[in-house]
Amino acid sequence: MTLRAVFLILCLALAACQSDGNGPTFPVSTPRESPTGSNSLIVGLVGTSTGPGSWRGDHAFRGADLGVHILNRRSPDDPVVELRTLDDQGDPERAAELVEELASSERTLGVVYAGPPEALPRAESALAEAGIPALLTFGDLYGARRLTPHVFQVSPSLVWEARTIARYLVRDRRYRTIGLLATDSMTGRVARRALKDALRGLGRRLAISVTSDADGGTHEAALRALERREVEAVVLEAPPPAGAATLAHLMETGASYRSTARARIASAPTRRRARAHARDWRPQIVGFDSLVTTLPERLARPGLIGSDSYARGAHYLPIPSFEAFRRAYVGWWETQPLNWERRAFEAVQMIGWAWRQETEEEDLALVLEDLEGERFGGLDVTFGPDDHTSVDQTAIGLWVVPRPGAAPHGRTLPENLPWVPLGRGFSIDGETTDFAARDWRYLFPGSPPRNGPAPKLRRALVGVSSPRSDPVH
After folding, report:
1. How far is C-alpha 110 from the geometric centre of its chain's CA atoms?
2. Are 361 and 36 in contact (CB under 8 A)?
3. Which residues have a Cβ under 8 Å from the Cβ of 13 and sit 6 or more positions away?
4. What would the pLDDT profile of 395-436 be if each residue is shown by its tens digit?
5. Residue 217 to residues 71, 228, 243, 272, 361, Cα–Cα distance (Å)
6. Is 45 strand, coil or helix?
7. Measured by CB atoms within 10 angstroms of the end CB, which terminus of the chain is less buried, N or C?
8. In which residue ranges of the chain is CATH 3.40.50.2300 found?
9. Domain 3-155+316-394, classified CATH 3.40.50.2300, yes or no
10. CA-to-CA distance for 197 and 116, rounded, in angstroms?
11. Domain 158-303 has what CATH class?
């Protein structure tokens, strides 16, 4: 049986999963080849496919390619959509020019963007003239206060992530000295400001902030500075390769995290323990969403924390919209969507949604602002004239590498992606869940009513639901 035959069978089955509006519709027409003709419509993908940032372009291409094939599973009378992929090579100037090039074509419906985030606002005038949106899949223009009328953001904001991280470190772990290791980049600057503000709101100060090269590296000198300051937790903002290199350096130097009690220095119960722990430094590592990625087993140490929405678990969580996406992805690529492919897939589907609306509005960015409460393989997406971010702050929480026996997820996780939700990280009060009410029935036993009180964390069927006294996480 061919791959396309398998994909068709999967899509026929998936159509039955969409009756409750939890995911994209998968029509049953035979998929068409990605077109290259002069009459097709275009969804552009500008991303970094070569150089240190090539992970962005690779993950975005896989999701966007599937997304365009789904758009083409319509009536044979519908216009054909082509995915046109352009490599910015990590160069912001080139990235902006490529977006402008796509916008200059009357056939372009929108742009999925996976390049240097600081470059995208420069293309606003070209996007406005064309009347098309561009959707950012990596980075935080919202946190940088640089979103423009035709730029939308599919990635979570570091502002919301920082608040979740700060709440965990201060209220849950009760650390007193917290350090930040961030890249010398726009994203790193956003992370620094967001974390400082979040800690200040909880009555804490950032003990030390150190920067590393934007392309990453092992951060050896920066880690030595954090050790000298005797921080108990290190918040990490780094691209995935650099994050893995940092974890490897900590392991090789004997500084890997063991437990909260062992990480304590300023918050240690006695001066004797504080001095001993300072000599044998083992801080807890908590990262922004770029840390929640595939890792070698030796680096995935229990207690490693990362922030992201719970849609990050689209590869295994039993929510219908997630299941629809991953079945389609496996049917197309014959592999699991373990990284951030869903973001680009959703971005394509959002562009397609705007295109298919029956409206006299010529500017598809304005049409996209009318999107409300739709799911495209992830969580609810709502935009508005003053809201161009698709990830709601209430959906963001913490992911953790669990210690053996701590996670009642009930499913086999990929060996190199052992992350599960930390229940307390998806809860404001530490007792009840912040997961969307429409998803309770899939994550808690007994089909809790959507109009009832939020379920208790200890009843969760997925993730780590241990109390704050958990010694590791």
Report:
1. 21
2. no
3. 327
4. 999 999 999 877 766 667 888 899 999 999 999 998 999 999
5. 39, 20, 8, 35, 47
6. strand
7. N
8. 3-155+316-394, 158-303
9. yes
10. 25
11. alpha beta
